[in-house]
Amino acid sequence: MRSQIDLLGQRIAMLIERLRNMGYVFEDPTQVFPGPETETETIIEKIEREVGEIPEALKLFWRQVGSVNLTGHHPSWTETEYCPDQLIVYPASYALYYFEDEHGNRLAYDKPFQIIIAPDELHKANVSGGAPYSISIPAVANDPPLNASPVTETFLEHIDRSLKSGGFPGLEGDQDHNWPIAKLRC
């Protein structure tokens, strides 16, 4: 699984380079692909100690890749009726943020605990939507199902599908846009 995660990280880096070369404007350039956080291991240990095992795929992604956020726009790409559903995977610190209050105290949650991976496709388009994409812990599989995804897929399948869709899987099936998805696919 380590080599699979490494390959996904390489594909993400390739996609980001293609987007930049095409003039895509990232909303927050510091959050596009910052790499693993230095406190990732401490965060994983804390959550696992309190709630249970985090799926191996997510732990490896946080450790090897970190996070990704393709939120942004291109000045000449047309608006579309579809939500682009840009690829986002939050860093480990985001999971800890929803796990603790501002004083570091564990918050009360129903089990299974949900690690939020990304907003749903509507929230990514600044429209009130549904539940965020999440993963349940304690882990039930090394590569678990992604909760609230518009299609049935695992966490790693979601990232792969996003990359095969040029980073914008929500545009699958939309014929009325000028986004160069074929040139972005990784």
> Roughly how many Å is the radius of gyration?
16 Å
Strand count, sense and barrel status of the largest sheet are: 2 strands, antiparallel
Number of strands: 6
User: Tally the helices: what do you get?
Assistant: 7
Estimate percent helicity: 25-40%
Strand order of the largest sheet: 1-3
Structural class: alpha+beta
**How far is the first residue's CA from the last residue's CA?**
19 Å
Any idea what the shape is?
A: globular
SSE sequence, one letter per element: HEHHEEEHEHEHH
Q: Which residues sit in consecutive blocks of at least 5 with pLDDT less than 50?
A: none
Quote the average pLDDT: 90
**How much strand content do the residues show?**
5-15%
Describe the model.
The protein is of the alpha+beta class. Helix content is 35%, strand content 10%. The protein has 7 helices and 6 strands; from the N terminus they run αβααβββαβαβαα. The protein has helices spanning 2-21, 40-50, 56-64, 92-99, 121-124, 155-164, 181-184; strands at 25-26, 68-69, 72-73, 88-89, 113-118, 133-137. The strands form 3 sheets. A two-stranded antiparallel sheet has the order 1-3. Strands 2-4 form a two-stranded antiparallel ribbon. Strands 5-6 form a two-stranded antiparallel ribbon. α1 (2-21) packs across α3 (56-64) and α1 runs parallel beside α6.
Please outline what is shown here:
The protein has 186 residues and is α+β, with helices and mostly antiparallel strands. The chain contains seven helices and six strands; from the N terminus they run H-E-H-H-E-E-E-H-E-H-E-H-H.
